[in-house]
Design goal:
Shape: elongated
InterPro entries: LapA_dom
Number of strands: 2
Distance between the termini: 44 Å
Keywords: Cell membrane, Coiled coil, Membrane, Transmembrane, Transmembrane helix
Protein name: Lipopolysaccharide assembly protein A domain-containing protein
Oligomer: single chain
Largest sheet: 2 strands, antiparallel
Organism: Pseudoprimorskyibacter insulae
């Protein structure tokens, strides 16, 4: 299984390097469209190789998806945490009640009752 993973990672690396080599031409990224940038006096632009833009977009999309999922699942994690606290509290109470019930009994009989 380990060799399959290494083979997959090697194939992925070869694919990413070939995409990067095929897309080395420079592209200019601008912050705003020209009409809006002239109006707001924000004329920021950046020149990068195309593969950096492609890989950056993929990484940004993945990070955005991870954050979105983390925020979306927060209520489920909070409910699970509350339920886990309630279960621990009820287990402690059950042990206390069983201890009170078995207080005067012989230890062997208490163990037999516990096993049922």
């Amino acid at each position: 299984m380990r060799y399959i993973r290494y083979a997959f990672l090697a194939a992925l690396a070869i694919l990413l390097v070939s995409v990067a080599l095929a897309n080395r031409q420079e592209v200019t990224l601008t912050l705003l469209p020209s009409g809006l940038s002239n109006l707001l006096q924000l004329q920021h632009s950046l020149t990068l190789p195309l593969f950096v833009v492609i890989f950056g977009g993929i990484v940004f999309g993945l990070l955005l998806g991870f954050v979105w999922e983390y925020l979306r699942e927060y209520k489920h994690r909070a409910a699970a945490s509350r339920n886990q606290g309630e279960v621990k509290k009820l287990e402690r109470e059950l042990r206390r009640v069983k201890g009170q019930r078995d207080e005067g009994k012989d230890e062997v009989l208490a163990l037999l009752d516990e096993a049922r």
